[in-house]
Amino acid sequence: MKEYKVKITDTADIDWSSLPKAEIADFPWNSEFRPVSYASLAYAKTGDKREGLWAHLFSFEKDPEARYTRLNEPVYLDSCLEFFFTMHGAGEPENGYINIESNSVPAILTAYGRGRAPRTSLIDMGIAPFEVRSVVADDYWELFEFVPLAVLKKVFGVENVDESTYFAGNFYKCGSYRHPDTYGSWAHIGTPEPDFHRPECFGRFILTRNV
């Protein structure tokens, strides 16, 4: 299983340049357009409203396509960066996973479930949209996402996130109308056709203060 170390910090002011990068570089379905893309994670253990999971997703892609502008529209048809993940406490049963899919607007699509179907919108679970910020430059775009501890508690039932918490997931890059065959991931997916909803292919995220 592929692994990535997630830094546990005491602050929500994350220095992303100091963290390891999970390269979204596996394109098993013969994609011709393969922009260099990566993601980084940190967990801010602040004990206040800024405690939670922080994610940075980045792609060297010029003029990212963004036709969708509203919550839970099919942003995966745009230039899109995606983060899927699951958590559970030590010794606790496995949960389903959250998918966070975003274009450069950023418009996001978020849901929870154990597989591709059925999935439940986080809005329908009583969870307000959480913070996603985008930056679009001449030759790249990036996302900064924050999933509060309150959301992790409600969805996964974790009361405390620490080194003993099971944490797994994957990062993805998909294309647009211009590049419809672009499907890349961090952890390899071995299906014959593109399918990001494969929790059995998730890599392991190791929560640690030693990164």
End-to-end distance: 19 Å
- What is the strand content? 35-45%
Shape: globular
Number of separate helices: 1
In short:
This protein has one helix and 13 strands. The chain is mainly beta.
Can you walk me through this structure?
Helices cover 4% and strands 37% of the residues. By secondary structure, it is mainly beta. Strands 1, 2, 3, 4, 5, 6, 7, 8, 9, 10, 11, 12 and 13 form a 13-stranded mixed beta sheet that branches. A hairpin with a 5-residue loop joins strand 6 (97-102) and strand 7 (108-113).
List keywords for this structure.
1 helix, 211 residues, single chain, globular
Fold blueprint:
Layout: E1 3-9, E2 22-23, E3 37-44, E4 52-59, E5 80-88, E6 97-102, E7 108-113, E8 120-121, E9 132-136, E10 141-148, H1 149-156, E11 166-174, E12 183-185, E13 203-208
Parallel strand pairs: 1-3, 1-13
Antiparallel strand pairs: 2-3, 3-4, 4-10, 5-6, 5-11, 6-7, 7-8, 9-10, 11-12, 11-13
